[in-house]
Design a protein that fits this description.
2 strands, globular, mainly alpha, 463 residues
Length: 463
């Protein structure tokens, strides 16, 4: 096990070093214009707005990483939620645990990038060890997880790395029968991002389906609240902290209603903050969340006629616990799609971030090798083809799409290639698996550095 962990750390350090090597090279005008500049543009933000430009990458420094959500996290880090009482501020939309970790680390904005990446890598190592039984697949999927086009989020001064690691700690506690560790992980997870609300709903949905099988109401209530208690505690702790500064226990919701009012408008045009984000979000919809939702509907219908003896999750076998986490993760991903569909007014801003940069995506990813064993080649091909066909129909009928072939959709293409690889990797010889991943490494890093530069330039955000 120790040998595998050292190999994973070596891969992660190699990817990190390669990321900043590529980023540094593309800061050089000669290199940029001879390579990426031939097929794409960058962005520039000045007094007149945001424009495309043929300039190379900008400098990476302390000032440049203070954009978008990073600004709010830094403000909370520096002075918590301190504002005049009764004043509504965007601060309340952001939860406090990540800013607290940032503050305790004593790290400047520029170097928090490396700290976040380290936390992300630790989370991936934990998930791979705890959830993936095949040592070879564990290494392959760990490498693939570092290459996903949206992984750049874990480089930014955002909460995703802490959010993912805290849940990984909870999974560790659950699988190792250490409830105190599970409680701590979920409590901190709940204090990191408001997505804990969707997690609680996913728990409730899966537990209700299990109840339909067991018909044991006492167990349903007891086990649900035992699992959800730390989530409720973390949620209440955040509400209490915000109440201390604002005088309102519902400051978070008031902030959302004021700055980001939600509505359901099924006939509104589909939009996103950027083409880059749109392409990756469309992938998330048709290759991740829609299949997860369909799978959960089928599983629920099958459960209606099933009957089995109930076993508390905390007393069940290791495999049963993994299975439960798999279903909860699918419920979270599918639930995110339903929530977005009902409340976004067809604005899918940041959808990819909320579905591929969360622990539930990686829980599913690292269990895929085992889950795919029972699927034949033809069934896998049918699943991929169905997702691809639905995506093509959607992509060809959305007015937001501009010219189907353009660099802004390169992240979408990379996601599709990685999905194809993960679905069929068991049919590929080991040496070719590594060859494919190393071939994908450079284009993946180019895309990730492109998005990183986009963030540093304070351009249209992608997540």
């Amino acid at each position: 096990m120790r040998k595998i962990i050292f190999k994973q750390l070596g891969i992660a350090l190699g990817v990190l070093a390669s990321f900043f090597l590529v980023f540094s090279l593309l800061q050089d005008p000669v290199v940029y214009h001879a390579t990426l500049g031939k097929i794409s543009s960058n962005y520039k933000h000045d007094s007149s707005g945001i424009h495309t430009t043929q300039e190379p990458y900008v400098a990476f420094n302390n000032a440049n990483v203070q954009h978008w959500d990073a600004v709010m996290y830094k403000r909370i880090r520096d002075d918590s939620y301190f504002v005049p009482v009764s004043v509504i501020t965007e601060k309340y939309a952001f939860y406090p645990f990540y800013p607290l970790v940032w503050k305790l680390s004593g790290i400047d904005s520029e170097y928090i990038v490396f700290f976040n990446y380290a936390l992300f890598v630790i989370a991936l190592i934990l998930f791979s060890i705890l959830l993936c039984d095949n040592p070879k697949a564990r290494m392959i999927y760990f490498f693939a997880a570092l290459l996903i086009p949206s992984a750049v989020i874990f480089y930014l001064p955002y909460a995703e790395a802490v959010f993912t690691l805290t849940f990984a700690i909870a999974v560790w506690g659950l699988l190792k029968n250490k409830y105190w560790l599970y409680f701590l992980g979920i409590f901190l997870f709940a204090a990191t991002r408001p997505a804990v609300v969707v997690f609680i709903m996913a728990l409730l949905a899966i537990d209700f389906v299990i109840f339909l099988r067991t018909r044991n109401i006492k167990q349903f209530i007891f086990v649900f609240f035992k699992k959800a208690a730390p989530a409720f505690a973390g949620f209440f702790a955040v509400a209490s902290l915000q109440f201390y500064y604002s005088g309102s226990f519902t400051a978070y919701f008031e902030c959302l209603n004021h700055f980001w009012p939600r509505s359901c408008d099924l006939f509104a045009p589909i939009t996103d903050w950027s083409l880059e984000g749109f392409g990756m979000s469309v992938f998330s919809i048709f290759f991740i969340c829609a299949p997860a939702l369909i799978y959960m509907i089928i599983w629920t219908v099958k459960s209606l006629g099933a009957k089995e003896a109930g076993v508390s999750l905390f007393e069940s076998s290791l495999e049963q616990k993994k299975e439960y986490l798999f279903y909860v993760s699918l419920a979270f991903l599918g639930g995110n799609l339903v929530y977005t569909f009902l409340t976004s007014g067809n604005e899918i801003d940041g959808f990819c971030r909320y579905t591929t940069c969360v622990p539930f995506f990686f829980i599913v990813l690292f269990q895929l090798p085992q889950k795919l064993i029972s699927l034949s080649f033809m069934k896998r091909a049918a699943i991929f083809s169905s997702c691809l066909l639905a995506f093509i129909i959607f992509f060809n009928n959305v007015s937001y799409v501009r010219d189907h072939i353009r660099f802004e959709y390169f992240g979408l293409l990379l996601f599709i290639l990685l999905a194809l690889f993960t679905l069929f990797e068991s049919y590929i010889a080991d040496r070719y698996k590594w060859l494919i991943l190393f071939i994908l490494l450079i284009p993946s890093l180019i895309w990730q550095t492109y998005l990183f530069n986009m963030f540093l330039s304070n351009a249209w955000i992608f997540a």
